[in-house]
Amino acid sequence: METIVSENNLPLFEALASNVRIKIIELLGQEPMIMKDLASALGLSNSIITMHVKKLERADLVRTEMIPGKGASQKLCTLVADRIELVFPSKGLIPRNFHITNISIGHFTDFDVVPTCGLASKYKIIGDGFDDPRYFLDPERVDAKILWFSKGFISYKIPNYLKPDEEPEELELTMELASEAPLSNEHWPSDISFTFNGFPIGKWTSPGDFGGTRGKYTPEWWNIEMNQYGLLVHIRINADGTFIEGTKVSDYTIGNVDINRLQWDLKLEVKEDAKNIGGLTIYGAGFGNYYQDIVSKLTYIDRKKLK
């Protein structure tokens, strides 16, 4: 989860000024919930719950998405923050704003992977089995919520919603990652390299491929002996360089990674010449310990509002 920093405090204050919305936050703090289940838990109608959830969405406290259900789609509600920081007006304060984009892990645009490998949605394996890279081209791969490979790369395109008067300050990329071992192995290091818009921004070493204990959101049908969850990795690119988990990993800054292009390219790779070739597992919403896919958060200053 993330910290919500609020310069425009009114939507946040409005969202918190309700016992019902506080109870919704408390329920979603335990696990994501279907909208109708929230309504049932609170003894309210779906329409009333929808109104409350929309106010929480406007305050960037809750995210909703449509997921398949029995007979019809259902709306899943997820709490996206575990703390709040209020920024009060002061002389000389420059307000910061955010563009937040969620990229489903199945929406990759290029790949070259080596077995062991595979994909699965929240409900089933994609393809006829494991270790066949051809299924990374299966039409159902867009539904993938876990994917893994022992060597190679996978790439994503991220839309850039910056407008001409918006000055980028920091890009944060967040994703749940682990190594890829046969079945699972907590002591299985893997050097995972990240490339952004063609720039090699840094490397992170995963300590292992975690199994044996079911991930918080990993479905019951998934074999407990296989990979269950990863670690939440934060990559930040700002004026001082690129940082992974607070450690500087390269001198690439927000000003020299072509941040103003219309779409960004993100590549995750386990290289042939890596010291630790231990594979890569990516967890999405519905697997692992964090109910999220790849999240892009761009902090910017709106110069038009300062004029």
Automatic annotation (TrEMBL):
PROSITE patterns: HTH_ARSR_2
Keywords for this protein: DNA-binding
One Gene Ontology term of the molecular function aspect: DNA binding
Domain of life: Bacteria
Pfam families: HTH_5 (PF01022)
Domain HTH arsR-type, first and last residues per copy: 1-95
InterPro entries associated with the record: ArsR-like_HTH (IPR011991), HTH_ArsR_DNA-bd_dom (IPR001845), WH-like_DNA-bd_sf (IPR036388), WH_DNA-bd_sf (IPR036390)
Name of the featured protein: Helix-turn-helix domain-containing protein
Organism: Paenibacillus soyae
